Amino acid sequence: MNAYFKPEGWLCDNPENIAALSSLAGLQEACAQGRILEARAIICDSAHNLIVDCGCIRGIIPKNECAIGIEEGTTREIAIISRVNKPVCFRVTEFRRGSDNNTYAILSRRAVQQQCIETYINNLAPGDIIDARVTHLEPFGCFVDVGCGVASLIPIDAISVSRISHPGDRFRTGQDIRAVVKSVDSYGRISLSHKELWGTWEENAALFHSGETVAGVVRSVEEYGVFVELTPNLAGLAEPREGVRPGQQTSVYIKSLIRDKMKVKLIIVDNFDAQYAVTAPPYFIEDNHISHWKYSPDGCCKLIETVFE
């Protein structure tokens, strides 16, 4: 039995997955082996069963097998409806002949999610760095698929050190990211963070030098100055300037980088309205686990850190 516990959509182009969907014999073999497959849900019928394009035939995921919690009433039906025209993972449980004399594969997504929680998610530890896919964005945070459609939330204040007004300032739906596990409860619910992956103050400050003029984004405007973001984990304070609004693009002159106070002093050269695509900078951490992260430099007057226990 395979154990592929990645966000939904990662398995679709896998050669073994494609081969299994190419023939009835392939699906029957996958059924016998208990393999996890993926295909696109094309219809949610009036009874909230999902109809899946299994290549050679159609598959049906009965309503209560569409997701963990549907049968118990703890998961809303929007979790089913929102899967239409998107990949879903499943295990083939049996084959039935319908009233139209066609053969249908009966599928279970819930069984795959349950296995994912029991053998993958429940074995995660604080500090583990995992793959995730952004599913939707809310003002309070970013929802991600951490494996087989199992959802988790990255709170807005855990996305980056530099403050943002909405997760859409950082991510887009469908984007593949990494996240850090903060905790896992007995129900398989994960608490996640993300800001640690974008590096410390020193790592980000090393990308810039005094005397340079660089690109930035206005994050907030205060009476005493304008906060301009240079990277997701580094922002500086520019002198007050009229007509500046949060969300505007800027070009800023770097006056100084003050390590012991974690300050970047800036002068706004220009500010303007523009919509640029959200592109994620590279992560500073490429390992699969982190036990401790300290954003602030040694000897700094302020301590910002995360300890994963």
UniProtKB/TrEMBL annotation:
Pfam families: S1. Coiled coil: none annotated. InterPro entries: NA-bd_OB-fold, Ribos_protein_bS1-like, S1_domain. SMART domains: S1. SUPFAM superfamilies: Nucleic acid-binding proteins (SSF50249). GO terms for biological process: translation. Residues 127-195, 211-281 form the S1 motif domain. Belongs to the bacterial ribosomal protein bS1 family. PANTHER family: 30S RIBOSOMAL PROTEIN S1, SMALL RIBOSOMAL SUBUNIT PROTEIN BS1C. This is Small subunit ribosomal protein S1. It comes from Hydrogenoanaerobacterium saccharovorans. The lineage of its organism: Bacteria, Bacillati, Bacillota, Clostridia, Eubacteriales.
